[in-house]
Amino acid sequence: MSVQTDVLTPTLRKPRLEDGADLWSLVKETGVLDVNAAYTYLMLCRNFQDTCVVAEMDNSVVGFVSAYIHPKQPDTLFVWQVGVSESQRGQGLATKMLQALLQRQSCLNIRYLETTISPSNKASQALFRKLARDFDAYCAVSMCFQTDQFPDDHESELLFKIGPFKKTELNTN
């Protein structure tokens, strides 16, 4: 006799304007991401729905990816923040959100992904290195922002550039 257990998996969708406050709260609760003004998350929900992902479970936001297509490099998606609630960490949600985003119609012409990560954020570094491996893509790391360029004591930020992606790998849906 086998016992079936129902494992709840978050629903991945585009953000809605009413998600803005929840996204701000999620970022704040992570304790590791830079918390931007609440206005920022409202604008992401209003203007960048096609390049952002919300993970929802039981009517609660449990994950979020904010990203945009680089204005001077239309084949490059810049991932700004990836946040996952503590209850969902270690279950591959961040990877699922990034993969779902890269498979969207809005990302059909994306060949590269960029993000910045502080040197101490080993979890994010591992996430993006894994994403590069999953897509059999190169991952170049270079300095992007030095500590002295920030007005506060913000840690430096490394630029991760992943790609080129093969179109067949990304758009399998």
UniProtKB/TrEMBL annotation:
Keyword Acyltransferase among UniProt keywords: yes
Highest taxon in the source lineage: Bacteria
Record carries keyword RNA-binding: no
Transmembrane segments: none
Listed EC numbers: 2.3.1.178
Domain N-acetyltransferase: 10-148
Gene Ontology terms, MF aspect: diaminobutyrate acetyltransferase activity
Pathway(s) the chain acts in: Amine and polyamine biosynthesis; ectoine biosynthesis; L-ectoine from L-aspartate 4-semialdehyde: step 2/3
InterPro entries hit by this protein: Acyl_CoA_acyltransferase (IPR016181), Ectoine_EctA (IPR012772), GNAT_dom (IPR000182)
PANTHER family with a match to the protein in the record: N-ACETYLTRANSFERASE
Family: Belongs to the acetyltransferase family. EctA subfamily.
Name of this chain's protein: L-2,4-diaminobutyric acid acetyltransferase
